[in-house]
Write a structure and sequence with these properties.
Number of domains: 2
Largest sheet: 6 strands, parallel
Number of helices: 17
Oligomer: single chain
CATH class of the largest domain: Mainly Alpha
Distance between the termini: 38 Å
CATH architecture of the largest domain: Up-down Bundle
Strand order of the largest sheet: 2-9-6-5-3-4
Helix content: 40-55%
Structural class: alpha/beta
Amino acid sequence: MSGDRSVSPDRHELTPETVWHIDMPEIRFGRDAADELAFQLRDLGVPDGAGGLLVTDEGLVSAGHADRVAGHLDEAGFAVDVYEDCEREPSIGAVEDCIDLVNAETEDGYDFYVGLGGGSVLDTAKTTRAVVANGGEPLDYVAAPTGEGEPLTEAGPPLVLLPTTAGTGSEISPVAILSVPDEQIKEGISSNHVRADAAVLDPTLTTTLPPEQTAKTAMDALGHAIEGYTTHEYDSLLRASDPGDRPVYGGRTPLTEMFSEKAIELLSTNVRKAVHNGDDLEARENMLLGALFGAISGLTAGASLCHAMAYPVGNRYHTYHGETIAVLTPASTIEYNAASDPERFADLAELFGVDTTGLSNAAAAAALKDEYVQLQRDLGVLPSGLTELAGITAEDLDWLAAQTVDTQERLLRCNPRPVTEAAVRDVFEAALHNWQE
């Protein structure tokens, strides 16, 4: 694996890639943008009187956000059923429950779908729409050997996603992440047919997010931006034999670099405000915009080692994805990967506000790690490492390293520095404690 050219497709020419492209849903952004959802649906061709499914969770029903969205659609003349049983870090079985509801309530699926929530809810909505449109079950479209690896050929009726967290980027991503409890792994259904048709980003939907969840999701967004900024350039990869075979993670481009830089600025300068004063709507708006920009970067250029390591941790210990990214980033994305391009990591340190005057590139990367850890400590709600996160000790690391290498090739191929199982174990060990009180 370590010899693969990262994110190179299975079928490729032995020549460098020369073309990059970007796919994106329609994006509607701003305060009270949720009140334009009916207009967005009509813009996508949904007729008046059509019936749809709102996919959400119990917390958002309790917070009143689901009633706000469903009431708006009802007043606009749309018929809406509500599915509120989404689970955190959704399993294959949980998503199948939503699919079963659709099949029980309709003959051929709903006329449209709306996802309202964090990444888990949005991934449930994406998978449900895709599987109902294509038939079968989710594992049919998960890559082998876990699933059958069948391609999705239909996108299905319009899907609009409304994130209530500033973090996961699922609202624009072509990937839906699902856990497979029997295998103790997480897998993705990766296809442009999974991607939503539109994303409506309204910061007023994020103000009820508690400080802890605000911090956790922000670290995921920051991870996207950093990983997107430091992964391979698109033209260092191999060209696909057919344009249709280009992977959804295609390497960094001038466009993704621009979004990374702005995302890091917005997120790193606003996350303290958003965590410590959740009613600061300007900070919430900047966080949501930063998360969007980070997703455009990281979910186009490619996530890498940190995300690959996070999935085995989350699946075995049921940790929140964002806090897992937070504790792994210093040792993986920063410390381990800095050797791949020291000058770029020195530039990254400057984006974080580190004064690199007189510092070597290596010293600037070390200062970047310190700055990132200090940011987490300032938030006051994040764990100091894997041990505090989930009681993980050195005895657990062989299994975690093996699972990372054996099950996360899709992401490891994006990493700018080759990895081995031994190297991954060392990174896990370094992440046991990022700081000591």
